[in-house]
Specification:
The complex is a heterodimer. By secondary structure, chain A is an alpha/beta fold. In chain A, about 55% of the residues lie in helices and about 10% in strands. Chain B folds into 2 domains: about 130 residues, no CATH class; about 140 residues, no CATH class. In chain B, strands 2-1-5 form a 3-stranded antiparallel β-sheet. Chain B has a two-stranded antiparallel ribbon with strand order 3-4. The chains are: A alpha/beta, B mainly alpha.
Chain lengths: ~210, ~300
């Protein structure tokens, strides 16, 4: 039987999975989340991704869904593709709207219907993957501040949020000494791994792209 | 203690006339609507009785607590439906000038003249009152929703509730009519005055469209639940003369409990409907390509934001 490993995931792995796209980021994120190994994340990553007020996944998804809804309202109100293109110019989904308008060839009903289709599929797929994360990735709550290690890491890792993630993984490392920290960000944590690893209880720090 | 004699006098005047025309046919909502209409008409002749009310599920709703504070008496005492109407033969002057009392009497009589004929209430006087009240509603959205969509779909509800409806209860004509109400609601939603639940409204609208596509049995409940959530915010925004601490209490309850609970409820039913819809409607190639582009866009936005936070 293959050995079951423990992975501690950084938020960019979670983001890459929730908003899955079959590319250099999405494929490894999917490979990790949907494999047979044990996955964990810390409360810090959870808050960063799904926190009620500022969670990145939630706020961005809400914004995109809102823009789709406003696009439909705009069509209902003005009955005009030109108005829609004009009003949506500053929206995040402007490129998507342009693509949909092009596909609809001026048929407002089919444009509305396709905007709804795209929004519904987007929402459903994000929700489903979020559900998979909820079921398969264990949330770990660290209770200790590890002040001494924090001070050491401060000199190595410039972003304090990254330090919190590393400390969450370190805390879990006491239960699973063979744990791997996986991050999509090669610049802060991964680049300094040789300096970081001697101070924490993590077997290794891996890049998301290693799981392609 | 009577802090607001004008309000007390007007209420007693309305009840006195109700007895004349037949109190047995006089229901609570008739009283509330009439009181509001009299208040509204009196304002036109520069008499402000400071009726404490808010816009709510069925139009205006007097606030009982503020009423009691203002008049020293319970609104329930004058309200039919909670016992017999009190018999009022003689109105006290309550220290109000005769000229003002006469103006109030005239307005009350005039309002009754619109709903009575030959000394008795007209057959459809409840509808007349409701329509007249809704004519004064602050938002067109209320008229289209309450007097249009809600009234229309509730006709399909039996005494057992909507549980008797099946997955395909409505026919094409009925669904088209519901669709037109939704179109209209999209256009008239008061986005500037009620921005707090605008996105929720847009999600709700699409959810009703999903019930049309996959499960009619869920439709009425989805519609009724949104009306409640809309009215919960409406009464916070559109009220007059209600004691401030009462409005604060509504606000607190709405944003801490009512709204979050509703969001969970809507999410649950929407998820169920979306899955059913997508099960029977596989995603086509064009849609797939566009969704992939949306995913990439959103993922990159999230990563950018994350990077900016750490920079």
């Amino acid at each position: 039987m293959p050995e079951v490993l423990n992975y501690f995931l950084d938020s960019n792995v979670i983001i890459g999975y929730v908003f899955y796209q079959a590319d250099h980021w999405g494929v490894p994120a999917k490979n990790i989340i949907e494999n047979e190994h044990k996955k964990h994340y810390g409360i810090f990553v959870h808050e960063e991704c799904f926190g009620v007020q500022w969670g990145l996944c939630d706020t961005i998804e809400k914004r995109i869904n809102s823009e789709f809804g406003r696009a439909i309202k705009n069509l209902k109100q003005n009955q005009s593709v030109d108005f829609l293109l004009y009003d949506s110019e500053t929206w995040k989904i402007f490129g998507i709207i342009k693509q949909l308008v092009g596909n609809s060839k001026g048929d407002l009903n089919s444009l509305e219907s396709e905007i709804r289709n795209v929004q519904r599929v987007f929402e459903t797929e994000c929700d489903d993957r979020r559900e998979i994360i909820r079921k398969t990735v264990m949330r770990h709550t660290r209770r200790l501040p590890y002040k001494d290690i924090y001070q050491i890491l401060q000199k190595i890792i410039p972003d304090p949020d990254d330090i919190e993630v590393v400390l969450d993984a370190h805390d879990l490392g006491h239960h699973f000494p063979e744990i791997f920290l996986i991050s999509g960000d090669g610049r802060h944590i991964y680049r300094n791994k040789t300096s970081i690893l001697p101070h924490i209880k993590i077997k290794d720090i891996k890049l998301l792209s290693d799981y392609r | 203690m009577v802090r607001n004699p004008l309000l007390k006098y007007t209420v007693m005047d309305i009840v006195k006339h109700a007895n004349v025309y037949g109190s047995k046919y006089y229901k609570q909502y008739h009283f509330y609507k009439l009181l509001f209409l009299v208040y509204f008409e009196l304002k036109k002749v520069d008499i402000d009785i400071k009726l404490p009310y808010s816009w709510y599920f069925y139009g205006d709703l007097p606030d009982a607590q503020t009423f009691e504070y203002m008049t020293g008496g319970s609104l329930g005492y004058y309200t039919p439906g909670q016992g017999m109407l009190p018999r009022i033969d003689q109105l006290p002057d309550l220290g109000i000038e005769e000229q003002i009392r006469k103006k109030i009497d005239d307005v009350v009589k005039n309002e009754y003249s619109k709903i009575t004929l030959n000394g008795i209430f007209r057959k459809n006087y409840g509808d007349i009152l409701l329509k007249s009240t809704y004519d004064e509603a602050p938002f067109e959205f209320q008229r289209v929703f309450n007097r249009g969509l809600l009234q229309y779909v509730q006709k399909f509800k039996t005494e057992e509730g909507q549980s008797t409806l099946t997955v395909l209860s409505f026919d094409f004509t009925e669904l088209s009519k519901i669709g037109r109400f939704l179109d209209e609601l999209m256009v008239v939603y008061p986005e500037e005055e009620m921005p707090e639940i605008y996105d929720l409204f847009l999600r709700w609208e699409d959810t009703v469209r999903l019930t049309i596509l996959v499960d009619h049995s869920k439709m009425i409940e989805v519609i009724e639940n949104f009306w409640e959530i809309f009215c919960g915010l409406l009464r916070i925004k559109k009220n007059e003369n209600v004691l401030p601490h009462i409005v604060e209490q509504w606000e607190k309850e709405y944003f801490s409990t009512t709204l979050p609970e509703y969001e969970i409820k809507l999410k649950r039913v929407r998820k169920h409907l979306l899955h059913r819809h997508l099960e029977s409607n596989p995603v086509g190639k064009n849609t797939r390509d566009t969704v992939d582009n949306v995913m990439k866009l959103v993922r990159d936005l999230a990563l950018e934001k994350q990077e900016a936070k750490g920079a």
